[in-house]
Amino acid sequence: MGQMKRNISKIGKAPGSAIYTGNKESFETKIEYIMYNESDYKRESVNNLKEIDWKAEENTWINIVGINESEVVEEVMEYVNLNSLVVEDILHIGHRPKIEIYDDYIFIVIKMLTFEENNLRINSEQVSMILHGNTLITFQEIEKDVFDPIRKRIANKLGSINKRHMDYLLYCLIDSIVDNYYILLDEIEDKIDELEEDILINDNESNPLPEIYKLRKELLLLKTAVWPIKEIVNELQKDYSLLTEPTRIYLSDLNDHVNQIMDYIVVYREMISTMFDTHLSNMSNRMNKVMTTLTIFSAIFIPITFLAGIYGMNFNYMPELSYKYGYPIFILLCFIISISMLYIFKKRKWM
């Protein structure tokens, strides 16, 4: 479903309406939670949110996959005093990445992106996050994500993630999504290199314009997904009681990554624009070569046509017409003229 169609589906509805705007055939809802601290770790899948101890002292990460069942998202309101507009934003998967700071929780929307090389398309999955005390709730459309390394770090007590506050896990999830953009950009760069080779080196006569237009469009969509993350990071760096000072230090590094990714996007868009101009230039050069060849042949036949026109006139007194060797001499003359003109064109490097 296109972004505009998702917005149209909400026209006429009351603000805060819990309407899922994504693919109705999404995965069935799965709920998993991870409770951990410096010494303990527990990971379990549950059928409903009531099976989770919401008052546990350990850090608790609740991951809800498959938000097409809006009732599950609305049920979260029983445990966290969510604004109805937040629930609407979670279910409206075409939402722009953003951050909203409330009195007792932080709400973040961000895009998880993957590149489909065969169709030159960037697939976007919306991930919503709610940080509420020592509980972090994440909402995903589909089960596949980039969080497995973080799950392993928690399970194996690697690094300092088990020793830190829940806001550090929030940072780790956002950082994991942003780092995955590098993989996406690397795949796009490989495709750009392939197109450049076809245009500049192989000089294929195939038309790369559809692929160039697709890449330009997808890079524009990538920019709209990445640029708002700067606003999210800048807002998180402000002095909010929900965030600890050590985590803000890491946010500066995350901001650097976002700036670098934006630089890559600008460079790639310029490269694609250059490829577009180069392709048009190649097409013009090929057309010029064709016109040059046709012009040369036309120039060669001009004097031959002139001679043929003279001897094609119906005058009674043309001594060459009755000459025994007139015809072979005429053919030989035409041949000499053609060879002479080809020699002149070659010498002057016109062909």
UniProtKB/TrEMBL annotation:
Regions annotated as coiled coil: 178-205
Membrane-crossing residue ranges in chain numbering: 290-313, 325-345
Keywords assigned by UniProt, alphabetized: Cell membrane, Coiled coil, Ion transport, Magnesium, Membrane, Transmembrane, Transmembrane helix, Transport
Protein location: Cell membrane; Membrane
GO cellular component: plasma membrane
Matching Pfam families: CorA (PF01544)
Membrane topology: Multi-pass membrane protein
Alphabetical list of InterPro entries matching this protein: CorA_cytoplasmic_dom, CorA_TM1_TM2, Mg/Co-transport_prot_CorA, MgTranspt_CorA/ZnTranspt_ZntB
Function: Mediates influx of magnesium ions.
The family this protein is said to belong to: Belongs to the CorA metal ion transporter (MIT) (TC 1.A.35) family.
Protein name: Magnesium transport protein CorA
Species in which this protein is naturally found: Clostridium grantii DSM 8605
Gene: corA
